[in-house]
Design brief:
about 280 residues, alpha/beta, Rossmann fold, 7-stranded mixed β-sheet, 9 helices, 9 strands, about 35% helix
Length: about 280
């Protein structure tokens, strides 16, 4: 069993590699992590190309949703993107907040931060900022952010409880998050789960949806809801290796499986420490 620091180092190494690859290479290599040349990345991919603010140089072909789709971002908002990569979601969010708003991207990989800053400079954006940092210890002050977004990153964070506590800390009272992520439903046979992780690296670190939502509730967020849900279709050659006929029927009926979700939570407007907003 790897320690949290060892897991983080693995993620850093992989995403340094990803930052130096083309979008096409990332799309054909298991959520960018390498090792599966036949992966069908469409099981996760969403099309950004028609979104305002989209910049192809910032699109590395990663992610499992479009968190800005349901994030209710308004002009003038201050938005924080966790695991911002080359800046793809930040630039889409910047289109929504306008010149009067601000977008901050945080990433733990130096090469990604450099790439994102280069992209922002080319676009001449002065209200998009990228900071090197850890999601479990965000380089952002408390009660500053209107909206937190993230795209297929929280599943890779070893301490999800601490990560959501940090999201709660940086949000203003009444602020909210909308994050896309990968979760599990039901009890996947262990061998199937291991093969799924090889097929799509984004599955690594995914936890049960019930546990994911419980962490959100326990952190103190209200109105926690799943805004969008999409089943991840695994290749038949992987599924049939491990599932009996009855298990196959249960899988096809959706009793267990891997899902990409976009989930929402709000920091209460009133609490004993800060009063009401």
């Amino acid at each position: 069993m790897k320690t949290s620091e060892e897991l983080k180092n693995v993620v850093k190494e992989k995403y340094t590699e990803i930052a130096n690859q083309s979008k096409g290479e990332n799309e054909s290599s298991c959520c960018g992590v390498g090792g599966c040349s036949t992966v069908d990345y469409a099981v996760f991919a969403e099309d950004y190309s028609k979104l305002g603010g989209y910049n192809s140089d910032a699109d590395l072909g990663l992610g499992c949703g479009i968190p800005t789709e349901f994030a209710q971002i308004k002009e003038g908002d201050k938005v924080l993107d966790l695991g911002s990569g080359a800046g793809n979601d930040c630039f889409v969010a910047r289109e929504l907040v306008g010149a009067s708003g601000k977008v901050i991207g945080v990433d733990m990989t130096d090469v990604m931060i450099d790439k994102a800053r280069e992209n922002a400079e080319k676009l001449n954006f002065n209200n998009v900022e990228f900071r090197l940092g850890d999601i479990e210890n965000l380089p952002v002050g408390g009660n500053q952010i209107d909206v937190v977004i993230s795209n297929c990153v929280l599943n890779l964070v070893p301490d999800k409880v601490k990560a959501f506590a940090e999201v709660y800390r940086v949000l203003k009272p009444g602020g909210h998050f909308s994050m896309s992520d990968v979760v599990l439903k039901g009890n996947l046979p262990e061998n199937l789960k291991q093969d799924a992780e090889m097929y799509a690296g984004c599955v690594s670190g995914a936890i049960q949806l019930t546990e994911y939502m419980e962490i959100i509730h326990q952190t103190g967020f209200s109105e926690a809801t799943v805004q969008k849900e999409k089943v991840v279709i695994l290749p038949k050659e992987i599924i049939t290796k491990y599932l009996s006929e009855e298990e196959m029927k249960q899988y096809e009926d959706g009793r267990f499986g891997i899902y990409s979700i976009t989930v929402y939570g709000q920091k209460p407007c009133c609490n004993p420490n800060s009063g009401c907003c």
